[in-house]
Design brief:
two-stranded antiparallel ribbon, alpha+beta, two-stranded antiparallel sheet
């Protein structure tokens, strides 16, 4: 444990540690701040063994296990255990994307998505598959990729017998039961159960055609239209009478 009087110049009115980056009026605040430098995480949650630097963060994490959902979306019936999760969810309604990439025109609703996106520019690949030679730029990708080797499907639907390898697939599937459509078009009254369906629909308003044919200059708004067009070049006739 640190000796605050000796090592950091303790003073009941002012506490400042040797890096001189911040000052504090209370000893407890200095202890919390120092953990941002030492990365000490003394608080461990017994159910999942995750560790935290602050007791308040540990208590907040407990809600993800207890099922208590204090934060209700004001535009739909979804509720969340964490306020930050509700904030991120609200952006699916408002379309707000406050995190802007400095190297291209893309923007994101979550900072974590921007960090992942930036690896496309830096080409950083920090995660290696243990069963093959593939490497990935995002921490979650190796776990997802490993399931292509193992065939593991850990996410089970509670309303039917279907199971999925990714949680996002399960969430998308559950909407076939609930008929929930959280993705609302801002230019019409149409709503969709999947975000990619909303993206495709928005192209009917914007006229955007981001899909380029690799064999000519034509562009398309739908992947299905691009596939149909490519068959003109290849002569493929998949539908036989």
């Amino acid at each position: 444990m640190w000796n605050f009087d000796k090592d950091f110049g303790y003073n009941k009115h002012n506490i400042q540690h040797d890096t001189r980056c911040k000052t504090f009026s209370q000893n407890s605040d200095l202890i919390k701040h120092l953990r941002t430098h030492t990365e000490e995480k003394p608080y461990q949650y017994s159910q999942c063994y995750k560790t935290f630097s602050q007791r308040t963060t540990l208590n907040t994490h407990h809600r993800t296990h207890s099922g208590v959902k204090l934060y209700q979306c004001c535009q739909c019936d979804q509720a969340f255990s964490l306020n930050i999760s509700n904030i991120y969810h609200m952006r699916t309604h408002t379309g707000e994307k406050p995190y802007q990439c400095r190297q291209c025109d893309k923007a994101f609703s979550q900072n974590s998505d921007l960090i992942k996106h930036m690896r496309i520019h830096t080409r950083e690949k920090t995660c290696q598959c243990n069963l093959g030679d593939k490497a990935f730029s995002m921490n979650c990708y190796p776990l997802k990729h490993l399931r292509t080797h193992t065939g593991e499907k850990t996410y089970q639907c509670r309303q039917c017998d279907k199971a999925f390898s990714l949680k996002t697939y399960l969430i998308n599937h559950q909407r076939t039961h609930t008929r929930q459509k959280p993705y609302q078009c801002c230019q019409s009254d149409q709503a969709f159960s999947q975000n990619n369906s909303l993206i495709k629909h928005m192209r009917t308003h914007t006229g955007e055609k981001p899909l380029q044919c690799s064999l000519c200059v034509k562009t398309f708004s739908k992947n299905s239209d691009l596939i149909t067009h490519l068959r003109i070049h290849t002569g493929e006739k998949p539908y036989q009478q």
